[in-house]
From TrEMBL, chains A, B:
Family: Belongs to the pantothenate synthetase family.
Reactions accelerated catalytically: (R)-pantoate + beta-alanine + ATP = (R)-pantothenate + AMP + diphosphate + H(+)
Residues that coordinate or bind (R)-pantoate: 67, 159
Enzyme Commission number: 6.3.2.1
Gene this chain is encoded by: panC
Residues engaged in binding ATP: 36-43, 153-156, 182, 190-193
Provenance organism: Saccharibacillus kuerlensis
NCBIfam families the record matches: panC
Job description of the protein: Catalyzes the condensation of pantoate with beta-alanine in an ATP-dependent reaction via a pantoyl-adenylate intermediate.
Name of the protein in its database record: Pantothenate synthetase
Localization of this protein: Cytoplasm
Binding-site list for beta-alanine: 67
Quaternary assembly: Homodimer.
SUPFAM superfamilies in alphabetical order: Nucleotidylyl transferase
Keywords for the protein's UniProt record, in alphabetical order: ATP-binding, Cytoplasm, Ligase, Nucleotide-binding, Pantothenate biosynthesis
Length: 303, 303
């Protein structure tokens, strides 16, 4: 496994590996997993998928300052380079790209990639500028790594939607591959930010996955409206005395357009569309997100 | 010479040519000249440079609607596909990419590449949104063609500055190569928009190159201030009864930052810096631009 700390090293290592694979089209495929490090089993699942589908598997670890707001957790974002490198080695990564902030932003940055529409709701509304920072850094990473496929976790569902739209609009020659959310046995979605949680917060946070699971069942079995679902989930979360809701929303997926709250889901059901039920909730100063993406059955199943 | 009207054709043709050049690193270099067509000798000079420096020479012709303002000349922008293809053939182009608007913008576009700073003055100030449209379409074209070098005329000096900053900020793996302005024998800078000019306008427009030439001599031979130079050029242009000035500005180059109008050029001279004297002037409904970029001598030459 090679470790590149500069852009030119990363390019050189990947070019070398590509050249070694000359003659094998599959062997030359570059799979890429961009992360902010503090890797967990969710990241490991992305790396395994990248290893399976690519001849050259690349991981980047970069805590990207421009996707954090002024009052967010940039300064305390957890880091553990050594453990990350061990996990990468174990998952068969060929090249780890570990740039410094100075390497990525050496002079005053004037260029921003902006995606509108899909960024207007959910985290786009609560974290202004966040998705500009994500789209800009992912553009940079794609231009450095030149991957054929890039793997992202579905926990950041809006991020996936934003990047899919960006890639389509700008004709980037890369497949965005969303991968399923990985959860703890008790349901908590894996996140590097779970490290911030106290024991009590960790226990209370289970209300998120539980309420999403119950709502998913209700959507598939009853003729409910999005407003009823949002109300259910909101009430369930409010049973926790320490949960502070940022948003609970139900939207169509992947376009993240509003579904009329009182109209029921019949239109979406008829078109075989998908919906996302997404939430962001704070426990103390730690903001967690989770979601459920549902392909809607034509009529509710009566179980 | 291959003609690609779709993105997938363009990619396939270029990949094929790259594969034929396997083993020759120089032969695999892709040179790219993006244009809006109605090609003239200025474009031909870019294509010759591309032919000299690349194994594979690609031309695109696309009148990009998103870089035109609502009251600009998109609808009447001159086109002549047949003559363009003849010129391309003559200049040894390997692949011409000639997409339709639907091919480039098949669905509602939500992604924009924005460059601030260098876009604030000159044409960026008089044509709001213009450089967003340029940066976005050039990003798309770069992602489609994947050139190693891209050749642009220095007449659009601000465009060159914007694209150089974009490429640097987003780590695009392409060299932006600015090429000298090509002029008619009488000094008029070549432009597809010259086709709009009446005989009288064509004659009066000579004041632009003449005033730039005189100002360049004065800058290199006298200790003048930018304000004096701008006043000189403004007065010279105003001798034409039909010239309508949009802007005359003198800025540092390539950062396009203001030089204090009264401070003289001593600081720039001392640092061996460059300056640009740029103008945009309307003759009837036709807006022409021209500029002179000057590397400043340490002290004015007394000739």
């Amino acid at each position: 496994m090679k470790i590149a700390r500069t852009i030119s090293e990363a390019r050189a290592f990947i070019n070398e590996l590509r050249q070694q694979q000359e003659g094998s089209a599959a062997g030359r495929i570059v799979g890429f997993v961009p992360t902010m490090g503090y890797l967990h089993e969710g990241h490991a699942s992305l790396l395994r998928r990248s290893r399976q589908e690519s001849g050259i598997s690349v991981l980047s670890i970069f805590v990207n300052p421009i996707q954090f707001g002024p009052n967010e957790d940039l300064d305390r974002y957890p880091r553990s380079e050594e453990a990350d490198l061990q996990l990468a080695e174990r998952e068969g990564v060929d090249v780890v790209f570990l740039p410094s902030v100075e390497e990525m932003y050496p002079e005053e940055r004037r260029t921003t990639v902006t995606v509108t529409g899909v960024t207007e709701r959910l985290c786009g509304a609560s974290r202004p500028g966040h998705f500009d920072g994500v789209a800009t850094v992912v553009s940079k990473l794609f231009n450095i790594i030149k991957p054929d496929k890039a793997f992202f976790g579905a926990k950041d569902a809006q991020q996936v939607a934003v990047l899919q739209k960006m890639v389509k609009d700008l004709n980037m020659d890369v497949d965005i591959v969303p991968c399923p959310i990985v959860r703890e046995e008790d349901g908590l979605a894996l996140s590097s930010r779970n490290a911030y949680l106290s024991e009590e917060q960790r226990r209370e946070a289970l209300v998120l996955s539980r309420s999403l699971r119950e709502a998913s069942i209700r959507i598939q079995t009853e003729d409910v409206t999005p407003q009823q679902i949002v109300d259910d989930v909101t009430q369930a979360i409010q049973t926790s005395p320490i949960a502070e809701i940022d948003y609970v929303e139900m939207l169509s997926f992947p376009d993240l357009a509003p579904i009329h709250p009182e109209h029921g889901l019949s239109e979406l059901r008829a078109s075989g569309g998908s919906a996302i039920l997404a939430l962001a909730v704070k426990f103390g100063s730690t903001r967690l997100i989770d979601n459920a993406i549902m392909k809607l059955k034509e009529a509710p199943l009566h179980v």
